[in-house]
Amino acid sequence: MPSPDRQPLTRRQWLGRIAAGGVTLALGSYAYARRIEPHWVEITHHTMPLMNLSSSLVGKRLVQISDLHVGPVVDNSYLRTVLRSLEELGPDYLVITGDLMSSRRAESVDLVIDTLRDSPVIDLPTFIVLGNHDYGEGFRNDFVADELVDKVRNLGVTVLRNESIDIDGLQIAGCDDRWARRTDLNATFARVDHTRPTICLAHNPDIADLPDWSTFGGWILSGHTHGGQCRFPIIGAPVLPIKNKAYARGHVSLNGGRNLYVNRGLGYTRRIRFGVRPEVTVFTLTPV
C-alpha cells in the first residue's frame, strides 16, 4: 500500500522518466554495437551434403571465413586471435571467400601476409577467392589484386581466379569478383566434372543468379554482405550490398539442386554490428 506521504508522479515526470530510459537504452545499444558485437564471433555448424561423395571424404570438416578486411579499420589483434583459434575446430580444409583487405591501393597487402602467416592458414589446405575490396579503391585496380595474389601464393596458399582444383577427390572452383567485373563462370567450370562433388567459392552471392551454372549441383560459398552488419526487429537489415535480398546470410536452397551459404564475415568497413555477429562456419561433408 503506497505511503500517504508519497505524491503520484505527474505526467511530465512520467514522460521524463520514459525519455531518460530511452536515452539510456539507445546509448547502451550503441556501445554494444560498437564495442562488443563486432568482435563477438559465433561459430556455426552445418552439414554439407554432396552428391557422389567418396567414403574417404565423409566426415571431413571444411571451415569457411570471409571478409577479414585487414587494414586500418579492423583491429588486427582481433583477427589474429580468431585465425589462430581455427585450428581448434579441426579443419581438414579452409576457405576464405574474399575481401581479405580494405585498401585504397596496395598499402594493406603486407599486413594481410603477416596476418595470414601468423595463423594455421599456411599449414592447412587453404583456398581463397578475391572480393571487391581486394581490388582497391573503386574495385577496379587489377595491379592491387595481382600484388595481393602473388604474395598470398608465395605463402603456399591457393588463390582461385576463375579456375578449379581437385583436392582428395573434392573439386573446389573459385570465381573472381563480380563487382570488379572479373567473373567468368565458363572458365571457372571448364575443368569441372559436374558428376563429382563440387564446391564453388564466390565472394558476391548475386553470382548465384547468373545464367551460366549449367548442370552444377553443388554448394556455393559466399560472403560480401556481412549479414547486413546491422539487423533490427521487423525491418531486418536496411542496407544490403546485393540485388537479391534473399541472399543476406546463411543457407539458401537454389534451383537445380544447388545450395548457397552466405557467411557473415569477420571484419567490417565500419566498426559496428548489431544483431549480426561475425561468423566462422564449420561444414561437415556428408553424402546426399
From TrEMBL:
Key words, A-Z: Hydrolase, Metal-binding
InterPro entries: Calcineurin-like_PHP (IPR004843), Metallo-depent_PP-like (IPR029052), Metallophosphoesterase_sf (IPR051158), TAT_signal (IPR006311)
Name of the protein in its database record: Putative metallophosphoesterase
Gene Ontology MF term list: metal ion binding; UDP-2,3-diacylglucosamine hydrolase activity
Domain Calcineurin-like phosphoesterase: 61-227
Listed GO CC annotations: membrane
Keyword check for Hydrolase: yes
EC number: 3.1.-.-
GO biological process, one term: lipid A biosynthetic process
UniProt cross-references to Gene3D superfamilies, sorted A to Z: 3.60.21.10
PANTHER family for the chain: PHOSPHODIESTERASE YAEI, TRANSMEMBRANE PROTEIN WITH METALLOPHOSPHOESTERASE DOMAIN-RELATED
Organism: Botrimarina mediterranea
Top-level taxon of origin: Bacteria
Top enzyme class: hydrolase
